[in-house]
Amino acid sequence: MAVTIGVARETAVGERRVALTPETCKKLVAAGAQVRVERGLGSAAHFSDAAYADAGATLVDDARAALSGAGVALCVRPPEIDRLHLLDAGTALVGVLQPDADAARGDAIVSRGLVAFPLERLPRTTRAQSMDVLSSQAGMAGYKAVLIGAQLAPRFFPMLTTAAGTIRPSKVLVVGAGVAGLQAVATAKRLGAQVEGFDVRPETREQIESLGGRFLDLGVSAAGEGGYARALTDSERAEQQRRLGDHLKSIDVVVCTAAVPGRPAPKIVTAAMVAGMRPGSVIVDLAAESGGNCEATRPGETVDVGGVIVAGPLDLASLGATHASEMFARNVFNFVQLLLVDGALAPDWSDELLAKTVWPARAAVEDAAA
C-alpha cells in the first residue's frame, strides 16, 4: 500500500525553510508515495502552492489534515507537542528533532509510538553525505555570516585603488574549519579580503589554504590519534589564548564557527580579547544558538562592546531559505528513500543509517511495534 507523506508548515519563529520542495515532492510521487501538503508550506521560501500541486501533491487547509493518517511526516525544526499528537502510532518522523533537548518532546514521541529519525544523529559516513542536513545548512550559514560581517564592518573588504588613495583590504579571521568555516573562508576570499583560518586540528591547514586562506598557526597543536583533536593542557590553552589575543588586535572581522553538536559552544574569544580589538572591528558568532564562541555574544542580538560590534545571529541558514530548502529537502529525500520499497513504508533495520539514526534506539522501536 502506498505510503502517505504529510508535511505541515513550520511553526518556529523566523523559520522560512521547508523539508519538501516541489522538486523532491515530484520525486516522491514518482516513487509511488502520496504527498499531502498544508497550503502555504513553501511561501516563505518562495515555493508556491501551485508548484506543489503541479508536482503531484494534494493541498490541504491545515496541519491536522496534512499529518493525520500520514505514514511519514517531514519537518525542518522539531514540531510542537500538539503537532506530535496529530500523528498516528508508527508514523516515521524525519527532520532535525533534537528529542534529547526537550524532555516533554521526547516523552511525546515515545507516548505516541512514533518512529523518529533525528537527522542530526545520522552517522558521519561517506554513504550518508547526501543526507547530511547539518553540513548542507552549515554551508549556507557560513556564507551568510561573512555577508553580515561585510555589512557591519565600516570598511571595504577588497583592496581598492582610487583617486583618493589606496584602501587596504580587510583582514578576516575565521575560527573553526568545519563546513561553515570553510564556506566562510571561501566567501570572504571571493569578496577580496585577506583571509586567515584557525582550527585546533592542524590537518585543516590544507583545506583552508586550498580556498585561498592562510592557516593561522598559534604554535600549539591539538593533534591526537585517529584524526581526532586531543584536549589541550592548561599551559597549552593559556599560550594559545595569549597568542590569539595578540593576533586579534590586527583583525577587522572575526567569524566564529566552532560548535559541538549537543554541547555548549567552546568559549574561544574572551572578553579581554574583545577589549583589545580595534574600534570598528566586527565579530560574527555562528555558534550563538549554543551559547557562542565569544564571551560577549548575546544570542539573537547585535551589540557594541567598547566599539567592537558583536553579532549573534540565529538560524542563519533560514536567511537563504530557497537554496537552503533545496539542499535540506534533497537530504531528506535521500534519507526517506531508505524507508520506502515500491512506495510503501518498509524500513530495513539492517541498514546502519536507519538503525543508528532512529530514536528511541532500535530495540525500543521494535518493542513498541510488538
TrEMBL record:
Domain Alanine dehydrogenase/pyridine nucleotide transhydrogenase N-terminal: from-to ranges: 6-141
Uppermost EC category: translocase
PROSITE patterns the UniProt entry points to: ALADH_PNT_2
Source superkingdom: Bacteria
Pfam family, one: AlaDh_PNT_C
Entry annotated with the keyword Nucleotide-binding: yes
Keywords: NAD, NADP, Nucleotide-binding, Translocase
Catalysed reactions listed for this entry: NAD(+) + NADPH + H(+)(in) = NADH + NADP(+) + H(+)(out)
Chain ranges of the Alanine dehydrogenase/pyridine nucleotide transhydrogenase NAD(H)-binding domain: 150-312
EC number: 7.1.1.1
InterPro entries: Ala_DH/PNT_CS2, AlaDH/PNT_N, AlaDH/PNT_NAD(H)-bd, NAD(P)-bd_dom_sf
Family: Belongs to the AlaDH/PNT family.
Function: The transhydrogenation between NADH and NADP is coupled to respiration and ATP hydrolysis and functions as a proton pump across the membrane.
Protein name: proton-translocating NAD(P)(+) transhydrogenase
Organism: Luteimonas flava
